[in-house]
Amino acid sequence: MFGRRPDDAVEKLRRGCDREELRADGTTAAVIDASFTVEPGQIFVVMGLSGSGKSTLLRMLNGLLEPTAGHVRFDGQDLTELSDRELRQVRSKKISMVFQHFALFPHRSVLENAAYGLEVQGVPRAEREKRATEALELAGLAGWEKSWPDELSGGMQQRVGLARALATDADLLLMDESFSALDPLIRRDMQDQLIELQDKLKKTIVFITHDLNEAMRLGDQIAVMRDGRIVQTGSAEDILVRPANDYVASFTQDVDRSRVLTAASVMDTDVRGDEAGCGCPTATSGTPFGELCAISARVSHPVAVVDTVNGERRLVGVVPRQRLIGSLGDEQGDPAPCDSPRAGGEKVAARA
After folding, report:
1. CA distances from 83 to 63, 78, 87 (A)
2. CATH annotation of 37-258
């Protein structure tokens, strides 16, 4: 809550007041009852329009803003109960942040910028330069260590910011619209870079964006915010195929479904049988939608979806051609949610 008498505003919210009534009293409810859990090794994306509360929510996760009510729990600690000194320790060693506008020091070299977080921790110079060099290599900037920030493109500067976060080996990365200031092609390249790094490092990441296509591409789980509240949390497929309300549905109407959906999203699971033995082309539950369409074009019957169950290949569903066509339009299937947690890192839980 921002403004006068924030604690009173919390009580009013609990009694049923809305944001507009609070604003008339001089209080802004930036985040309201936003409760969620980020699993270890997961990319958790928070998305919404400007003013939805997503950046405020992110700043509560590392203690830059203290919740008016509620708790933020990380690695067994309640961050809202830590002293300023303890909170600084958590920020310097366990939580790193990648900013939207790079936040590089113009008077420091690329290597010195990447090593800055380690310098704050008091790491000896030789070790911090070694770790920063390794982080820059991971971020695709090997050979640029002695360059200055103004000699780099926007995308390269953002890579330095990412390398700075990686160098500290923090358990949690917070990324506040980190790619939104970049040109579309560079932004796509940075998304590829983040996905590649995540496959190697298995970090826990909370990523803020207002771009739904970016959220769909990066997020293991996505939380959609509106007017300070989380209106839906789920996988990209859940949100695309089973929107919680008209607001989420309108958000997703322009998304390229073929890049998000898989066979599991559109298949009919009301089937019986073992592995299809006709020798016809089959799919697995994880087969991308585009590939599924190509298989469907080669056969005159529904595509069989075959997975390995208890060591045996079994028929788990079929995809009729009509269902493929309907999935690209307004017709919605009945998907089974896909859950793909990634190992490693720490668990984050928040209730604000």
Report:
1. 10, 11, 6
2. 3.40.50.300
CB 261 within 8 A of CB 330: no
Predicted confidence (pLDDT) per residue in 46-61, tens digit: 998 888 999 999 999 9
Predicted confidence (pLDDT) at residue 343 exceeds the cutoff of 60: no
**pLDDT-above-90 percentage for the chain:** 38
Q: Cα–chain-centroid distance for residue 80? A: 23
For tokens 């859990």, name the residue: 37
Q: How confident is the model at residue 233 (pLDDT cuts 50, 70, 90)?
A: very high
Amino acid at residue number 18: D
Q: How far apart are CA 172 and CA 58, in angstroms?
A: 12
Mean pLDDT in residue range 57-84: 91
Indicate where the chain has its CATH 3.40.50.300 domain(s): 37-258
182, 232, 246, 247 from 253: Cα distances, Å: 24, 16, 10, 10
At 181 the three-state DSSP class reads coil
Give the residue from 244, 202, 190, 201 showing the smallest Cα distance to 222: 244
Rg of the chain, C-alpha, whole Å: 23
pTM score, whole prediction: 0.79
Within a 10 A sphere around the Cβ of 225, how many other Cβ atoms?
25
Task: Write out the two tokens for 250.
Answer: 């309108």
Helices marked H in the chain? 6-14, 19-24, 54-61, 84-93, 110-114, 116-121, 125-138, 154-167, 184-201, 212-218, 236-241, 246-252, 263-266, 289-298, 321-327
The 10s digit of each residue's pLDDT in 93-128 is 899 988 877 789 999 999 999 999 999 888 999 999
- Torsion sign across C-alpha atoms 39, 43, 49, 52: positive
Q: How far is CA 5 from CA 2, 9, 175, 253, in A?
A: 9, 7, 31, 40
